[in-house]
Write a structure and sequence with these properties.
This protein has 471 residues and is an alpha+beta fold. The chain contains 12 helices and 11 strands. Helix 1 (2-57) packs antiparallel against helix 4 (152-202), helix 5 runs antiparallel to helix 6 and helix 7 (312-322) crosses helix 9 (350-364). 28% of the residues are buried. One of its GO terms (molecular function) is phosphorelay sensor kinase activity.
């Protein structure tokens, strides 16, 4: 942003300089051309007055000393022409009159008029300046005096003046650039602090705040308002999580008491009512599971301490060992593909909870099948963890909804669970700065893809079971 701001300011200054210097450059060239024209017009008129009596006597050669002296002094070609345009006397040397301008000036002089002003002399338009004055004898035109002035010196003056203007403009741009650099830092420093704080806040860290510091008053006020807003969001979120956790916790006691009372009724029921009793117990257990998962979701959203370094491969091997009994009971084979170490930074126990939720979901829908777990390098150097099963899976349009809270597939309403497992896992992964994606597996089944930022600096000390150490 700093470069764009400096470029914008320099662009505006450059536009102003061009708007000022271009008219100055054009005005200087025009004024120098006008000075040359006035000077040559006066000299040509004087020579025309001297030529009038010489032409009347037919002794035009008497003007040669004057013409040669003038031509030698100013480097100007002087010609005395008769009424028919014939050259009667010429100083020689100098430049020939231009074809267009010289003919037009001579025609105007022989018609008894002064020649028209020449165009402004410019570096790319440096034709000689031709001035023609009529030689009058009474009211009749007896001939004309033509002067052809070279414009090399004038062009050099114009180029030098333009160069001075260009150098002055570059110096102004340089001074503006030097002054703009600290000014842009002063303006943008609060913007950068605010940008960092907003980015941190969007990653889930509700304690992110921006230092007010120095800067424009409007930006300092904006940062203060942002900090107040972030504090309000953190307070509201904490109150919401606390409410959910308290309600879930408080409901467990009466629910447990209800479960005990309903369970105690079984011995006094008639055989016909035992089926309804079993249904009631199942609903109570399901409600208990929903409360437990809701409490887990509330805890997953809490900031429970500083993150720790975890070896993903070792943590995966440990969780597969824990879930091996459940997989064996269901006849499910678990396969692991992981090489070396891949360290990430997560809240304590977060990766274990994510793996438990994903593996439990995979084993529940893959009895007698295969669950494949792999750890490798994903895009942008991230650590990629894949858990794929060959169960029934989900259609592509339902995969995006699988991480929503309490979402259940249309054909999974009778499957035990609360619909919070993947939602909890997704929340924890986002807190780690990663992403959790659910997509169909090939040829069938479901694949859960977890990508986490890699920890480049491997910790000096490690545990044989980093997953347990992280907990």
């Amino acid at each position: 942003m700093r470069r764009r701001l400096i470029a914008l300011l320099l662009g505006l200054v450059a536009v102003v300089l061009v708007a000022v210097e271009v008219p100055l450059a054009a005005s200087y060239a025009q004024s120098r051309t006008q000075e040359l024209l006035i000077d040559r017009t006066g000299d040509t008129a004087r020579l025309a007055r001297l030529a009038a009596p010489a032409l009347a006597r037919g002794a035009v050669q008497t003007l040669e000393p004057e013409v040669q002296a003038y031509a030698g002094l100013y480097g100007v070609r002087v010609e005395v022409r008769g009424v028919d345009g014939e050259v009667l006397l010429s100083s020689g040397g100098g430049e020939e009159p231009g074809t267009d301008g010289g003919s037009q000036a001579l025609a105007q002089a022989l018609a008894g008029r002064r020649s028209s002003p020449p165009p402004t002399v410019l570096p790319w338009r440096a034709a000689p300046v031709t001035v023609a004055e009529p030689v009058l004898r009474g009211s009749e035109v007896a001939g004309a005096v033509v002067t052809v002035s070279p414009t090399g010196e004038l062009v050099r003056d114009v180029v030098l003046y333009w160069a001075v203007l260009a150098v002055a403009g570059l110096l102004v741009l340089g001074l503006v650039a030097v002054a703009t650099w600290p000014l842009s830092r002063w303006i943008l420093r609060p913007v950068h602090r605010l940008d960092d704080a907003v980015h941190t806040l969007t990653t889930g860290d509700l304690d992110a705040r921006a230092e007010v510091g120095h800067g424009p008053p409007e930006l300092r006020r904006l940062i203060a308002d942002f900090n107040r807003m972030a504090e309000a969001i953190r307070t509201s979120s904490a109150q919401q999580r606390a409410l959910v956790a308290d309600v879930s916790h408080q409901l467990r006691n009466p629910l447990t008491a209800l479960q005990l009372r309903v369970d105690a009724l079984e011995s006094g029921l008639v055989p016909a009512a035992r089926g309804d009793h079993r249904v009631a117990m199942e609903e109570i257990r399901r409600l208990t599971q929903v409360l437990d998962d809701t409490l887990a979701m509330a805890r997953a959203q809490e900031d429970r301490g500083a993150p720790v370094a975890v070896d993903v491969g070792a943590c995966v091997r440990e969780r597969l060992r824990v879930w091996s009994d459940a997989a064996e009971a269901g006849g499910t084979e678990m396969q692991l593909s992981a090489e070396g170490s891949a360290w990430v930074l997560t809240p304590p126990g977060a990766l274990d909870t994510v793996l438990d939720a994903v593996l439990h979901n995979a084993l529940r829908f893959t009895p007698g099948g295969t669950v494949r777990v792999s750890v490798g390098e994903g895009p942008e150097g991230r650590v990629e963890l894949l858990v794929a099963d060959d169960g029934p899976g989900l259609p592509s349009e339902q995969c995006a909804a699988a991480t929503r809270r309490f979402w259940r597939g249309p054909d999974q309403q009778n499957v035990p669970g609360s619909g919070l497992g993947l939602a909890i896992a997704s929340t924890l992964v986002e807190r780690c700065g990663g992403t959790l994606t659910v997509r169909p597996a090939a040829p069938h089944g479901l694949c859960v893809e977890v990508r986490l930022p890699r920890l480049e600096a491997v910790p000096a000390q490690s545990s044989s079971t980093p997953g347990l150490a992280a907990r």
